Here is the input.
Amino acid sequence: MDKKIEVRICFGTLCHVMGGAELQLLGEALPPDLKKHVEIKGSTCLEFCHQQGQGQPPFASINGRMLSGCTLQSLIAELYKELN
Amino acid sequence: MAINNNAMLIRRELLTRVAQLLIDNQLIERIDRIPLEMRPRGGDHTRCCIHKDRAVLKYKLMGILGFNIHDEQDELTPLSEYARQAHARTQLTDVVLTVVDEACSSCRKNSYEVSNLCRGCVARPCMVNCPKKAIHFAGGQAHIDPEGCVSCGQCLKVCPFHAIVHLPVPCEEACPVGAISKNERGIEAIDPAKCISCGKCIVACPFGAVVEKSHLVEIFRTMQQGERPVVAIAAPAIAGQFGADLGRIRRSFRMLGFADVVEVAYGAEVTARTEAAELAERLAEGAPFMTTSCCPAYTGMVRKHLPELQPYVSHTRTPMSYCAEQVRQQLPDACVVFVAPCSAKRHEAFHDPNVDYVLSFEEYGAWLIAAGINLNTIEPDTLDGLPPAEARAFGASGGVTLSVKALAPEGSVRDLQISGLDKAAIKQLRAFCKAPTANFVEVMTCEGGCINGCNVISNPKIAARQLQAAVDKAPKIA
Here is the structure.
């Protein structure tokens, strides 16, 4: 059975304005070999922005692991890490 | 154009911090601390040293406060003094862009260079094809004479080793009308006589050296004085920007302190009807074609750079203009704030008697962050009504054509759409004047239309989908 990875992207306004708007394209940007493993979910706010010292927005999480300063490329790299 | 890079993130952080201080009524007291907070002692810096970074941030803030950087009289003037002057300011200007000379890295002159990939081949097509004989060979490699080179790029095209590279000046390359160029100090300067305020240089500069002057201070001051209702009129493109429906966007404006918010699509409906009637009238009188007039950067380009096209530009006013007039008629003492996708609208708004200030999409987003408003978690407002679908569609390329076609007799409109104004498109328009191939020309300075303006938040691909969702909810124009 294929390994499943859950990505949650923060669509809160802070993340959206500070670069997260681009993350809505993750589904289209995923390489074919990743696509079957990844389930993308949106979140109205992951609440990471309210926690001090958690890094810069935009935030996302992969299988519950928080990621900050996300870009499409950094998320894809993290997904490969998680897969392997 | 929404481009994710650090220059954009710094700009949005600065706007957010300024909005926060305005909300807290602490602008004068605390603005001088922003560069220190963003570049604290011992922290990272991107330029030569932390002090240079802080100086650049200071000047960007000066621009955000609405000042021209080159108007600085005394380098020691603190931001608090500029904030004080901004609070007291009663006059704006139509110069909407300013260059932070401290930030401009003085990119090398637009040039072509021979890299060490050059093999010194026998064919030497670069030398043979150079129209100015500016290439010679020495030490087994090609060399370009900078005095003779006219940057035609022919050598780059013919080199079989891809050994020749183009070193562009990004802002100059992005400017469709040659309005930005180096001054005597090698720093980029904008020529107001040529500039069409499109803001492409803002997006293109990798150093974030071009800043759009903001009206944030004026808008807050008007709200705090409480003497006039402050009404936002939001450009159709906003529907694609924040991942939120128009009901939530409307609600957020009221939470920020606006008395009301009106969709500029209502003005777009007037533009559509007037433009369709004008087209029919002009064609009946024998005119070969007519072009749209709703993109102020395009009409500015025609006025300043392509006067032969001027007789064919529609006299119909822009959606913003009609919408502001409607608000003014209902609320004569209102302070009307246009919520805009680009800097060209800020220039246009200055000349419109019914628009007081402009709030860019970025500034609105920064204000939401500062106010702690998450569009996803607030209750949506009920919209008072719905403008026609075709009017909402003005936010993207093809929207004006769609509405004019819907209102014109079937088959009477043969359209040409120019989505993105660059040097090649201007050339195309010049040629079109002499040999028109359509009777209606829609021109949008930004590729894809207003959803790709210099102040947008969302990727235009996503924005187009979200705008379409708003279009689909509205009734067809009748």
Notes: The first strand of chain B starts at residue 97 and ends at 99.
